[in-house]
Amino acid sequence: MDKEKLAMFKELLLKRREEILKDVLETKKELVEEYEPLADAIDQATRESNLAFELRLRDREQKLLKKIDKALKKIEDGTYGICEACGEEIDEKRLLARPEATLCIECKKAQERMEKIRGE
């Protein structure tokens, strides 16, 4: 992959990373804010349910941050865009859709089939 494309993907990854970190900070701010107990049990349950949902999202984003950091390291060491399973180049269209991808589309499909068979 040429330097211009690598720079473009690096910018995409950094932008995505920044957006995730911004969301994390907003969630932290919401958690730190002091909540007054609500008199209505239904309102309290709704608030807690929403908070649990937000925390699950942040957990998923934590995992995505690790993938983004891994992709940025791969750009630095010259291995970005190479499938970790077969060693072939990952199609640019796939990288545009998921710049943190580590598998080509065929290897990813095979991985998903195996996960489905194992019930994961």
TrEMBL record:
- The answer to keyword S-adenosyl-L-methionine applying to this record is no
Q: Which PROSITE patterns match?
A: ZF_DKSA_1 (PS01102), ZF_DKSA_2 (PS51128)
* Annotated ranges, domain DnaK suppressor protein DksA N-terminal: 6-75
| Any coiled-coil regions, as ranges | 14-48
Identify the Pfam families for this entry.
DksA_N, zf-dskA_traR
Its keywords, alphabetically, are: Coiled coil, Cytoplasm, Metal-binding, Zinc, Zinc-finger
Domain of life, per UniProt, equals: Bacteria
Q: Where are the zinc fingers (dksA C4-type)?
A: 83-107
Domain (Zinc finger DksA/TraR C4-type) spans 78-113
Signal sequence segment:
none
**What InterPro entries does this protein's entry cite?**
DksA_N, DksA_RNA_pol-bd, DnaK_N, Znf_C4-type_bac, Znf_DskA_TraR, Znf_DskA_TraR_CS
Q: What's the name of the protein? A: Conjugal transfer protein TraR
Under the heading PANTHER family, the entry gives: RNA POLYMERASE-BINDING TRANSCRIPTION FACTOR DKSA (PTHR33823:SF2), RNA POLYMERASE-BINDING TRANSCRIPTION FACTOR DKSA-RELATED (PTHR33823)
Keyword NAD appears in the UniProt entry: no
A GO molecular function held by the record: zinc ion binding
